[in-house]
Amino acid sequence: MYSIVMVSKTMVREDGKRNFALRDDDGSEESVFSGNTPRQAALKAARRLEPDPSEDDADRVDLELREKGTDKVHIYEGWAWHETAPDNKPDWMPDEITEANVSKQGIEHLEE
What confidence tens digit (pLDDT) does each residue in 71-89 have? Predict the structure, then answer.
């Protein structure tokens, strides 16, 4: 008897997370973010942006995340802002925190 094994092109870790490389304008990939979904990795990348005073005033930046092991590039618009920490925050948390949000713009495939 034979077993059929499906091999995925994506590089999924044992914990189910996938790695996404943040692409610069020149195509270089210096930072890697992991997440169960591309959006989760994009939110982590957006939190590294320079935060604005409020969400309404936040500048939106294009984020391109290539899924490691594939030619798939997930494109998001991301923005970050400062917000007051919740009243029930732990002692180690600062009084002002960085919040972020992303909006998916699409998927492209690299030509190589």
Answer: 999 999 999 999 999 999 9
pTM of the model: 0.83
Tell me the C-alpha distance between 27 and 36, whole Å. Answer: 24
pLDDT at position 11 is 64
Q: Comparing C-alpha atoms, which of 109, 108, 110, 103 is closest to residue 61? A: 103
Predicted local distance difference test score (pLDDT) of residue 112? 64
Measure Cα distances from 99 to 54, 56, 58 in Å.
Answer: 9, 12, 11
Asked if residues 42 and 10 have their Cβ atoms less than 8 Å apart, the reply is no
| 20: its two tokens | 């996404």
DSSP 8-state symbol, 71: S
Q: Can you name the residues that pair with 67 across neighbouring β-strands?
A: 20
What is the mean pLDDT of the segment spanning 46-75?
Answer: 95
Based on C-alpha coordinates, what's the Rg of the chain?
17
Q: Which residues, at least 6 apart from 64, have a Cβ–Cβ distance to it below 8 Å?
A: 22, 23, 73, 74, 75, 76
